[in-house]
Design a protein that fits this description.
Distance between the termini: 18 Å
Number of helices: 4
Order of helices and strands: EEHEHEEHEHEEEE
CATH topology: Dihydrofolate Reductase, subunit A
Number of domains: 1
Strand content: 25-35%
Largest sheet: 8 strands, mixed
Strand order of the largest sheet: 5-4-3-6-1-7-10-9
Radius of gyration: 15 Å
Shape: globular
CATH superfamily: Dihydrofolate Reductase, subunit A
Number of strands: 10
Structural class: alpha/beta
Length: 169
Protein backbone atom coordinates (compact mmCIF):
# COMPACT_ATOMS: atom_id res chain seq x y z
CA UNK A 1 0.00 0.00 0.00
CA UNK A 2 1.32 3.40 -0.97
CA UNK A 3 1.32 6.13 1.68
CA UNK A 4 1.05 9.71 0.43
CA UNK A 5 0.57 13.10 1.96
CA UNK A 6 -1.45 15.93 0.44
CA UNK A 7 -1.12 19.49 1.69
CA UNK A 8 -1.69 23.09 0.64
CA UNK A 9 0.53 25.69 2.28
CA UNK A 10 1.48 29.27 1.75
CA UNK A 11 5.03 30.42 1.08
CA UNK A 12 5.71 30.49 4.85
CA UNK A 13 4.47 26.91 5.35
CA UNK A 14 1.13 27.92 6.86
CA UNK A 15 -1.64 25.32 6.45
CA UNK A 16 -4.41 26.55 8.75
CA UNK A 17 -6.18 29.50 10.31
CA UNK A 18 -8.56 29.19 13.25
CA UNK A 19 -9.38 25.58 12.48
CA UNK A 20 -9.96 26.06 8.77
CA UNK A 21 -8.11 26.50 5.50
CA UNK A 22 -6.87 30.08 5.21
CA UNK A 23 -8.03 30.37 1.59
CA UNK A 24 -10.39 28.85 -0.95
CA UNK A 25 -8.69 27.50 -4.04
CA UNK A 26 -11.26 25.64 -6.14
CA UNK A 27 -8.64 23.95 -8.34
CA UNK A 28 -6.86 22.60 -5.26
CA UNK A 29 -10.05 21.26 -3.68
CA UNK A 30 -10.90 19.48 -6.95
CA UNK A 31 -7.39 17.98 -7.14
CA UNK A 32 -7.64 16.89 -3.48
CA UNK A 33 -10.85 14.99 -4.16
CA UNK A 34 -9.63 13.45 -7.43
CA UNK A 35 -6.34 12.26 -5.94
CA UNK A 36 -7.62 10.99 -2.60
CA UNK A 37 -10.55 9.14 -4.17
CA UNK A 38 -8.34 7.71 -6.92
CA UNK A 39 -9.50 4.83 -9.09
CA UNK A 40 -9.74 2.27 -6.32
CA UNK A 41 -10.40 2.19 -2.60
CA UNK A 42 -8.31 4.66 -0.61
CA UNK A 43 -8.07 5.86 2.98
CA UNK A 44 -7.72 9.38 4.31
CA UNK A 45 -6.05 9.89 7.69
CA UNK A 46 -6.72 13.11 9.57
CA UNK A 47 -6.61 14.53 13.05
CA UNK A 48 -9.76 15.00 15.06
CA UNK A 49 -9.59 18.80 14.60
CA UNK A 50 -9.46 18.34 10.83
CA UNK A 51 -12.43 15.96 11.06
CA UNK A 52 -14.34 18.57 13.10
CA UNK A 53 -13.50 21.28 10.54
CA UNK A 54 -15.15 19.38 7.67
CA UNK A 55 -18.61 20.66 6.75
CA UNK A 56 -21.32 18.22 7.81
CA UNK A 57 -22.19 17.59 4.16
CA UNK A 58 -18.63 16.32 3.54
CA UNK A 59 -18.20 14.28 6.72
CA UNK A 60 -17.22 11.56 6.21
CA UNK A 61 -15.30 12.31 3.03
CA UNK A 62 -17.21 10.18 0.51
CA UNK A 63 -15.77 7.22 -1.39
CA UNK A 64 -12.85 6.88 1.06
CA UNK A 65 -12.18 5.12 4.33
CA UNK A 66 -11.98 7.92 6.91
CA UNK A 67 -9.48 7.33 9.74
CA UNK A 68 -9.33 9.90 12.52
CA UNK A 69 -6.32 10.22 14.81
CA UNK A 70 -7.21 11.20 18.36
CA UNK A 71 -5.51 11.01 21.75
CA UNK A 72 -8.98 10.67 23.25
CA UNK A 73 -9.49 6.91 23.58
CA UNK A 74 -13.25 7.42 23.90
CA UNK A 75 -13.61 9.32 20.61
CA UNK A 76 -15.72 7.50 18.05
CA UNK A 77 -17.96 8.20 15.13
CA UNK A 78 -20.14 5.81 13.12
CA UNK A 79 -18.64 7.07 9.84
CA UNK A 80 -14.93 6.85 10.74
CA UNK A 81 -12.34 4.52 12.19
CA UNK A 82 -10.20 5.88 15.02
CA UNK A 83 -6.50 5.41 15.68
CA UNK A 84 -4.22 6.47 18.51
CA UNK A 85 -0.90 6.32 16.66
CA UNK A 86 0.39 6.27 13.05
CA UNK A 87 1.08 2.52 12.88
CA UNK A 88 -2.51 1.76 13.84
CA UNK A 89 -3.91 4.08 11.16
CA UNK A 90 -1.72 2.43 8.54
CA UNK A 91 -2.75 -1.00 9.80
CA UNK A 92 -6.46 -0.12 9.52
CA UNK A 93 -6.03 1.11 5.93
CA UNK A 94 -4.01 -1.96 4.98
CA UNK A 95 -6.43 -4.39 6.63
CA UNK A 96 -9.37 -2.80 4.78
CA UNK A 97 -7.62 -3.37 1.44
CA UNK A 98 -6.85 0.25 0.62
CA UNK A 99 -4.64 0.86 -2.40
CA UNK A 100 -3.39 4.18 -1.10
CA UNK A 101 -3.41 5.85 2.30
CA UNK A 102 -3.56 9.65 2.17
CA UNK A 103 -2.42 11.78 5.10
CA UNK A 104 -4.54 14.94 4.95
CA UNK A 105 -3.65 16.92 8.12
CA UNK A 106 -3.50 18.84 10.33
CA UNK A 107 -0.07 19.97 11.43
CA UNK A 108 0.55 17.39 14.18
CA UNK A 109 -0.66 14.56 11.95
CA UNK A 110 1.65 15.65 9.14
CA UNK A 111 4.55 15.67 11.59
CA UNK A 112 3.74 12.18 12.91
CA UNK A 113 3.53 10.67 9.40
CA UNK A 114 6.30 12.54 7.57
CA UNK A 115 8.79 9.69 7.98
CA UNK A 116 6.25 7.13 6.71
CA UNK A 117 5.21 8.71 3.39
CA UNK A 118 6.47 7.81 -0.08
CA UNK A 119 5.46 11.09 -1.66
CA UNK A 120 4.03 14.50 -0.87
CA UNK A 121 1.50 16.24 -3.09
CA UNK A 122 2.06 19.91 -2.39
CA UNK A 123 0.09 22.94 -3.46
CA UNK A 124 2.04 26.12 -2.77
CA UNK A 125 -0.33 29.06 -2.40
CA UNK A 126 1.53 32.18 -3.42
CA UNK A 127 0.78 34.37 -0.43
CA UNK A 128 2.17 34.62 3.12
CA UNK A 129 1.12 35.24 6.74
CA UNK A 130 -2.05 33.23 6.22
CA UNK A 131 -2.59 31.76 9.68
CA UNK A 132 -1.15 30.07 12.75
CA UNK A 133 -0.86 26.35 11.91
CA UNK A 134 2.23 25.26 10.00
CA UNK A 135 3.51 22.23 8.14
CA UNK A 136 6.46 20.65 9.97
CA UNK A 137 10.00 21.47 8.93
CA UNK A 138 11.18 18.92 6.38
CA UNK A 139 14.47 18.35 4.60
CA UNK A 140 13.58 19.01 0.97
CA UNK A 141 17.08 17.92 -0.06
CA UNK A 142 15.98 14.33 0.69
CA UNK A 143 13.17 14.58 -1.86
CA UNK A 144 12.88 15.00 -5.64
CA UNK A 145 10.37 17.63 -6.82
CA UNK A 146 8.36 17.46 -10.00
CA UNK A 147 6.28 20.54 -10.83
CA UNK A 148 2.97 19.51 -12.24
CA UNK A 149 0.73 22.55 -12.68
CA UNK A 150 0.42 26.27 -12.04
CA UNK A 151 -2.83 28.17 -11.70
CA UNK A 152 -3.57 31.86 -11.89
CA UNK A 153 -5.99 34.00 -9.92
CA UNK A 154 -9.56 33.86 -11.21
CA UNK A 155 -13.11 33.91 -9.85
CA UNK A 156 -12.65 30.47 -8.21
CA UNK A 157 -9.00 30.76 -7.11
CA UNK A 158 -8.14 33.71 -4.90
CA UNK A 159 -4.36 33.16 -5.16
CA UNK A 160 -1.87 31.87 -7.72
CA UNK A 161 -0.72 28.32 -6.90
CA UNK A 162 1.95 25.81 -7.89
CA UNK A 163 1.19 22.10 -7.59
CA UNK A 164 4.12 19.71 -7.32
CA UNK A 165 4.89 16.19 -6.17
CA UNK A 166 7.85 15.34 -3.98
CA UNK A 167 9.17 11.77 -3.98
CA UNK A 168 11.55 10.50 -1.36
CA UNK A 169 15.07 9.94 -2.73
Amino acid sequence: MKISMIVAMDEDGCIGKRGNLPWRISSDLSRFRRLTEGDGFNAVVMGRKTWDSLPDSFRPLPERLNIVMSRDTTWSHDDAESALYPGRAIEIAYADGCEECWIIGGGQIYEMFLEHVDEIHLTTVHTSNSGEVFFPVWERKNWIETKMEETEIDEKNEFRTTYSTWKRK
